[in-house]
Amino acid sequence: MPVQSGRREAILEIVERVREIESNCGVTRESLKQVKRVLVQFAMNVDWFTDEEFPPIKTESSETSCFYRLAEDEETHRFALYVQSARAPVNLPPHNHDTWAVIAGIRGDEVNRFYERTPNGICQSGCYTVRKGTGVAMLPDDIHSIHIADETPVVNFHMYGLGLEYLYNREYFDYQEKKWKIFPVYDNIRDAMNI
Ligand SMILES: [Fe+2]
Predict the structure, then answer these.
(1) Tens digits of per-residue pLDDT, 35-67?
(2) CATH number attached to the domain at 7-164
């Protein structure tokens, strides 16, 4: 990947701002709203996150998404910031994150459905489409599912309180068996720590 002037410094500054928000305000709906605002604003720098540098998944591939790691604390793996590149069809089942999570749109439409737990499983409580200029923020126990149907590839920021490879206790709801299961650790992550 070519190095674009100012981008690495900007990424580190964003992570620092998020770190300050968490340090000053903890992990709450309000603090995560602040994190979302920071990332949504940063996502407007579309020239820094082009398809050339973060290629969409090829249609002939069996994969539908991958993550490019932009930043993550070295020893604690905290404050993990990724560019996610995805293409239809994506239908990720309802899941939590076991850490806070924020998504901010760069290109394309990603439908997020939100759920509440019920005695028999889950019940949808909301729906929001993440696209450029918008985002969603979730506490560790919040539940969402992700859906991509449009042909236009989706590119988003995803930021987590802890790196994806270290989220061992994420749960997802298996509709067929009607029960919660442990979400396999996501590891299709490409290094972009030096862009
Ligand atoms: Fe998620």
Answers:
(1) 999 999 999 987 888 888 888 777 777 888 899
(2) 2.60.120.10
